[in-house]
Design brief:
The protein has 303 residues and is mainly alpha-helical. It has helices at 3-28, 31-57, 72-100, 108-136, 139-168, 173-200, 207-220, 253-270; strands spanning 226-235, 238-247, 275-282. It has two domains: 3-200, Cation efflux protein transmembrane domain (Alpha-lytic protease prodomain-like); 207-292, 2-Layer Sandwich (Alpha-Beta Plaits). The chain has eight helices and three strands.
């Protein structure tokens, strides 16, 4: 299933959830329910923006973007984090005003039932999207899924707080719960923005992929062949690895090309979809790449 299909479902679910939560707020007057509804409103904007960014990310490479447009997904995650942060700030302002002028919460059972139904929808969609994000390696899907899952937990906290208001008579509890939800949302917003910035700065592949790359190179490393300057990076759903392959200078061009293509194919078979760039050099030839740090520590010294 394509990423856009997941985001379309997320968009439809977000609209339904907002309707349920706003109805719960209208029935109860709870600022906690309002904060929950405002967070869900962000889901609609975020899902729409994610659809746009995923469409851009899916464009093929061109003359101006030879590595493709995959990094557009990181903008989706970053914008979603910023929107969540804005929603959290608005929630804190509303909660502070309600704390200064407390008011009772009404129709609690009906409101709780509506929020519980909305949370069940969010939980199902979040589980489905996170599963798809892992399979498709999409940060846009993961960001949207994590946001929905956060929404589920905040809704649970809001329900507990609102239920306790008529039981205890503590009218201040509702706005305090709203503020707690807002602070939790701010934490999630920071996480999403940090990951987005990290992704835009050419982060290396995950540890499991790095282990796979090393396992492949170990199979071909010998007295005649060694690897160094192994570098990896990821851009959205795409992954890349580059390296130097050192071999005897007396080998023919055809034999050297065959060895390079063999290693490339092994890497692409081990990590489907990865882009591999291998530069071949004589064993006694070294290059200087100070901007990239020291050579790969696992590489063997020249014989």
């Amino acid at each position: 299933m394509h990423i856009r299909r997941y985001l379309h479902v997320s968009l439809v679910a977000a609209v339904l959830v907002i309707a349920l939560k706003m109805l719960a707020y209208k029935l109860t007057g709870s600022v906690g329910f309002l904060s929950d509804a405002m967070e869900s409103m962000v889901n609609v904007v975020a899902a729409g923006f994610a659809l746009l960014m995923v469409s851009i990310a899916g464009r093929p490479p061109d003359a101006d973007h030879p590595y493709g447009h995959s990094k557009a997904e990181y903008f989706s995650s970053g914008i979603e984090g910023l929107l969540i942060g804005v929603a959290a700030a608005l929630i804190i302002v509303e909660a502070a005003q309600r704390l200064l002028a407390p008011r009772p919460v009404e129709s609690v059972p009906a409101g709780v039932a509506l929020i519980a139904l909305a949370s069940a929808i969010n939980a199902g969609v979040a589980w489905w999207m996170l599963k798809g994000a892992k399979r498709l390696r999409s940060i846009a899907l993961e960001a949207d899924g994590r946001h929905l899952l956060t929404d589920v937990w905040t809704s649970a906290g809001v329900i507990v707080g609102v239920v306790l208001v008529p039981i205890t008579g503590w009218l201040w509890l509702d706005p305090v719960v709203g503020m707690a939800v807002a602070l939790h949302i701010l934490r999630e917003a920071y996480s999403l923005v940090a990951r987005s910035v990290d992704g835009l700065m050419d982060k290396s592949l995950p540890d499991d992929d790095l282990v796979t790359v090393e396992q492949v190179l170990v199979r071909y490393r010998s007295r005649e062949m060694r690897f160094d300057h192994v570098r990896t990076r990821r851009a959205g759903t795409r992954r890349f690895v580059s390296m130097h392959l050192h071999m005897p200078a007396q080998w023919t061009l055809g034999h050297a090309a065959h060895c390079r293509l063999t290693v490339e194919k092994a890497l692409m078979d081990a990590i489907p979809g990865i882009g591999v760039t291998i530069e071949t050099l004589p064993q006694d030839e070294e290059t200087h790449q100070e901007e990239c740090g020291p050579p790969d520590a696992s590489a063997r010294p020249p014989e």
